[in-house]
Amino acid sequence: MPISPRLGAEEAAAKMAGFKPPYPPQEALIEANRCLFCFDAPCIQACPTGIDIPSFIKKIANGNPTGAARTILTANVLGASCARVCPTSVLCEGACVMLDREHDPVKIGRLQRFATDHVAEKNISVLKSPTQKTDKRVAIIGGGPAGLGCAAELALLGHSPVVFEKKFHAGGLNTYGIAYYKMSPQVSLDEVEMIKGLGVEFSCGVEVGKDVPIAQLEAEFDAIFVGIGLGGSAKLNIPGEGLPEVVDALHFIEQLHSQPLHQVPIGERVAVIGGGNTAIDAVTQARRLGAREAVVLYRRGQGDMPAYEFEQELAKVDGARFVLNVVPVEVLSEGTGHVTGLKLAHTSNADGKLCVLPGSEFDAPFDMVIKAIGEEKQVGLLKKLFPNLELDQRGVVVRNLDTGQTNLPKVFTGGDCANGGREVVNAVAEGKKAARGIHAFLGGEKVSGPVQASRYGVKGAPMGAGFDRPIRAPELEAEYAKHPAT
Ligand SMILES: Cc1cc2nc3c(=O)[nH]c(=O)nc-3n(C[C@H](O)[C@H](O)[C@H](O)COP(=O)(O)OP(=O)(O)OC[C@H]3O[C@@H](n4cnc5c(N)ncnc54)[C@H](O)[C@@H]3O)c2cc1C
Ligand code: SF4
Q: What are residue 387's phi and psi, to 5 degrees?
C-alpha cells in the first residue's frame, strides 16, 4: 500500500513543537545566577567557537541580554541556531564545573537562546560591518553554516563576499536538515537575513559547476571558499531498494522543512536503518508524525552506536524501538510494488569484526524504510570543480587547520566537506577561521581570538579559547588528568 500523511495540521504542529522551551526572563535570571563565573572557565574551551560563556551569562544576570547577545554573536554568528542544536552535554555543559559538585550544569544552551532570541525578537543589530570596504571579493560556494561563518567574518573584516547556494534558501542543513523539534527552519532563515544585513550578497538557486562555471569565479574573485558539505545518504545496495517507500533520511527530513508537516507521507510501521544521529532524528520524527511503530535497525551493539546517548534516550521517550545486531538483506514487496517488509539477518561483532550469521534471516513487516547509513563525500563534485585539489583517503579536502587554505593557494575550505561531518558549531568555527586565513592571504593583518583578555595568565588548567583548540568534555577530563590544576 502507498503511504500517506497520518496527522492533521494542528496535531502535527503540536507533536513537532520544540522540546526545549525558551526561558521566561525570571527563570533565565535564576539560572544565570547559578554560574560561578569561573576564571579558567572550562566551558569556553569546550566551545569550538570560543564564546566567552561566563561573560555573557554575567550580562544576563545583570539584566543586559543585548550585551550578552553581542558577546555570543561576536564569537559565533550562528549563536541562535547553536543554542538550539549544539550537543551541549558533550561540549560546554559537559565541561561545566557544576558537574564536579554533583549539580546539574549551568544550562548554557538555553541561556544562549534567551539572549539571542531577545535581539532577534526586538530586531536589534549587535554586529556592525565597517563602513570602509576593501576592494576584495570572495566567492563562497555553499550557504551552509561553514559558508555563512566565513561570509559573515569576511564582511566584518571589510571584504565583499558573495554566497552561491544551489538551494532556494541558504542555511544548508541548518535550514533543511536539523530535526524540526530542535529548531524550526525559520531560526536559520533569520540568521541568513542578519548576515545579509552585514553586507553579504547571496545568489541562491545557483549551483556552482552547473549554473556558474568555476572558471568564472576564479576570474572574478580574489579568493574562493568551498563549503559544500556532504552528499546524499549512502546506498544499501540490496534488492528492493528502488521501491517508492524506501527513502533517504536526508530527503525525508528535508520534506519536513519544505512542505506542510501534515502533508508528509509516513508509514504505519517505519524501519530506520543506521545508528547515527541522523537515524535517531528520522525515527523520532516518524514517531511524532504518527507512525504506530518506528524501529531503529542497527548492525552492531548498543555501545557501538555513534548516536549521542542523550539523543537515543529522547527517541526512546518518543516511543522508538531499537533492534541491534541486524542488517537488512532485502526490501520485500510481495509483488505489490510497495514495501511490505524487510528480510533481516543477525550479525555477530566478535573482536570488532562484523559478520552476518548464516541461516539467521527472518522477515519483519514494515511499510516504510528510511536509509540513514551515513552521508557520502562529495569527491565527484570536488574533482569536477577543482581537478588538482588535494583530498585525503576519506574523500575530504586537505587543508591547513588554522587558515583553511588548501593546496590551491586561492582556495580555502571548512565545514563538513573538510572535516568529514561534525556539528554546526564546528562548521561555523571553521568558516570563520578560513575567513581570517583569506584575510591574511589578501594582505590583511593576522586576526586571532576570540581571546578573553581577562583570562590571560591562568595556570595549570588547559589554556585559551575553544576556538583555538576545541576539545570535547571527555577530552577535557583527560587533559585535566595529565595536568592537574595548580
Ligand atoms: C540529518 C542531520 C541532522 C543533523 N543534526 C545536527 C544537530 O542536531 N546539531 C548539530 O550541531 N549538527 C547537526 N548535524 C550536522 C550539521 O548539520 C553539519 O555539520 C553542518 O550543517 C555542516 O555545515 P556545512 O556548511 O559544512 O554543510 P551543509 O550544511 O551541508 O551546507 C552545504 C551547502 O552547500 C550547498 N552546495 C553544495 N554544492 C553546491 C554547489 N555546487 N553550488 C552551490 N551550493 C552548493 C548545499 O546546498 C548546502 O546548502 C546534522 C546533520 C544531518 C545530516
Ligand atoms: S564552567 Fe559552568 S559555572 Fe564555570 S563559568 Fe562555565 S558555565 Fe559558569
A: -55, -25
Q: Is the pLDDT of residue 314 over 50?
A: yes
Residue extents of the structural domains in the chain = 20-126+448-486, 137-231+376-441, 246-371
Its pTM stands at 0.92
Mean pLDDT of 16-35: 90
Q: Residue 476 CA: which ligand is closest?
A: 2
* H-helix or E-strand spanning residue 140: strand 137-141
Query: Strand pairing partners for 202?
Result: 163
**In which band, very low, low, confident or very high, does the pLDDT at 485 lie, cut at 50, 70 and 90?**
very low
Distance between CA 159 and CA 161 in Å, rounded?
A: 6
Question: Is the Cβ–Cβ distance between 270 and 291 less than 8 Å?
Answer: yes
Q: Is 411 helix (H, G, I), strand (E, B) or coil?
A: strand
CA gap 441, 88 in Å, rounded: 34
Under a CB-based contact definition with an 8 Å cutoff, are residues 132 and 161 in contact?
no
Q: How confident is the model at residue 16 (pLDDT cuts 50, 70, 90)?
A: confident
Is the peptide bond between 450 and the residue preceding it cis, with omega within 30 degrees of 0?
yes
Given the candidates 3.30.830.10, 1.10.1040.10, 3.50.50.60, 3.40.50.720, the CATH classification of the domain at 137-231+376-441 is 3.50.50.60
CATH assignment of 20-126+448-486, among 1.10.1060.10, 3.40.50.720, 3.90.930.12, 3.30.1050.10: 1.10.1060.10
Alpha-carbon distance 244 to 250, whole Å?
Answer: 15
Ligand 1: nearest atom to the Cα of 415? 26
**What is the whole-number distance in angstroms between the Cα of residue 304 and the centre of ligand 2?**
31
**Ligand 1 site-directed mutation target among 169, 203, 228, 255, most atoms within 8 Å of CB:** 228
Please, what CATH class does the domain formed by 246-371 belong to? alpha beta
CA–CA dist 87, 423 (Å, integer): 8
Residue 370, classified by CB atoms within 10 Å of its CB into exposed (0-12), middle (13-18) or buried (19+), is buried
Query: Pairing state of beta strands 160-165 and 137-141?
Result: parallel
278 lines ligand 1 (CB under 6 A): yes
Decide if 137-231+376-441 and 246-371 have a common fold: yes
- Rounded CA separation 151/246 (Å): 37
CA angle 412, 413, 415 (to 5 degrees): 160
pLDDT for position 436: 94
In a 10 Å sphere around its CB, with 0-12 CB exposed, 13-18 middle and 19+ buried, how is residue 389 labelled? middle
DSSP string across 350-380: GGG--EEPTT--EEEE-SEEEE-S-BPP-HH
Q: Collapse the DSSP code of 135 into the 3-class scheme (helix H, G, I; strand E, B; otherwise coil) and give the result.
A: coil
Residue 12 has pLDDT above 90, yes or no: no
DSSP 8-state class, residue 27: H
